[in-house]
Design goal:
Oxidized Rhodanese, domain 1; 33% helix; Rhodanese-like domain-containing protein; Rhodanese-like_dom_sf; 5-stranded parallel sheet; alpha/beta; GlpE_sulfurtransferase; Thiosulphate_STrfase_CS
Length: 107
């Protein structure tokens, strides 16, 4: 079962290397800006590529997208594949911490 996680709780897990971020947006969106170290797994590829991109089904994965709609869908799909420690981080638009990428002040 998954649950929502706040940005503050997520950054603590990321900084402690106890979780990894998973961006389920498209590659062009990811290139514009993403959470440092995030793995890219576009929503449309979750069912076909999750085992390749996220090999540990028991690791803590923090799933996010742009606004939170795709992340919720991705979490449901990952749960159906047997992932056990998922958190829906929502959208990067509400992420107050560092973002890396080729953004020019827009998302």
């Amino acid at each position: 079962m998954s649950e929502k996680i706040t940005a503050a709780d997520a950054i603590r897990l990321l900084d402690a290397h106890e979780a990894a971020a998973v961006d389920v947006r498209e590659p062009d969106e990811f290139a514009v800006g993403h959470i440092p170290g995030a793995k890219l797994l576009p929503l449309g590829q979750v069912l076909s590529r999750a085992a390749e991109v996220l090999p540990d089904k028991n690791a803590v994965w923090l799933v996010y997208c742009r606004t939170g709609r795709r992340s919720a869908d991705a979490v449901r799909k990952l749960e159906s594949l047997g992932y056990t420690r998922l958190y829906d981080l929502g959208g990067i638009l509400s992420w107050p911490y560092e973002i890396e990428g080729d953004f020019e002040g827009h998302f």
